[in-house]
Design brief:
single chain; about 230 residues; alpha/beta; Arc Repressor Mutant, subunit A; 2 domains; seven-stranded mixed beta sheet; WH-like_DNA-bd_sf; Sig_transdc_resp-reg_C-effctor; HTH luxR-type domain-containing protein; Tscrpt_reg_LuxR_C
């Protein structure tokens, strides 16, 4: 996101407010005008979630062709009405979850975007209509999207694997420590440790401890595996 804002500033085309006056939210305008795809990063901000929910509902009620909708959520965005109640009714909509720190952004067809960083005062964000800059933002979005976890999978794993016990075991598996060493470091019996490992392996859908460590890294379930891309 920082790279995108820098690119936009260099091009000197940071909004369309000077070109056209509109009382309608830019989010409503972009979602309503999408032809192929809408992508958004959700930080968990209630106002942002409400605005996107309104735009998706309005587009759905208007009929017309369906577009692909991708929502990349921070964990705290999962409790918003958008994710809980609106998304299940939106056709061709996919939600993924990431721990990567996200600025708020909405992208449309690789042609335009609305971006807003938490520290910015403009609640409507800045509209970007430079296609090259919009495509750059979509590429950054795609990098995080590929490493994010599907919503259903995240919720299935969230219970056990995000506990302190689960996190510590995942770290031991990722580090390749033997069961005996890991159990001793965690101050639990070898039998108890192995029982927890078996349950975690089942949750991750893997057949070996090595695979469990790799899968945990792929799903960004380990703190050291997170990264800040946007």
């Amino acid at each position: 996101m920082t790279a995108y804002r820098s690119l936009s500033a260099q091009r000197g085309r940071d909004d369309t407010g000077s070109d056209r006056e509109s009382s309608e939210s830019p989010v409503l305008t972009l979602v309503g005008g999408a032809r192929q795809r809408v992508s958004a990063t959700l930080s968990g901000d209630a106002d942002q979630a409400t605005e996107i929910a309104t735009a998706l509902v309005r587009r759905s009620r208007a009929g017309g062709r369906s577009v692909a909708v991708r929502l990349l959520c921070a964990p705290r965005a999962l409790g918003t009405p958008l994710v809980r109640h609106i998304v299940p009714r939106v056709p061709n909509c996919e939600v993924r979850v990431t721990d990567v720190k996200l600025d708020e952004a909405l992208m449309m067809d690789g042609r335009a975007a609305v971006v807003r960083a938490p520290q910015e005062d403009d609640v409507n964000g800045r509209v970007m209509e430079d296609p090259a800059a919009a495509r750059t933002l979509e590429l950054l979005f795609a990098c995080v999207w590929r490493g994010a976890v599907l919503l259903d999978e995240y919720e299935r794993l969230d219970g056990r694997l995000h506990t302190d016990m689960g996190q510590r075991i995942l770290e031991h598996l990722y580090a390749g420590r033997t069961d005996a060493v890991a159990a001793q470091e965690m101050n639990v019996s070898l039998r108890t440790y192995r029982r927890h490992v078996a349950e975690i392996m089942r949750d991750l859908g893997v057949n070996s401890r090595f695979q469990a460590g790799v899968r945990a890294a792929e799903l960004r379930l380990l703190p050291e595996c997170g990264q800040q891309v946007l």
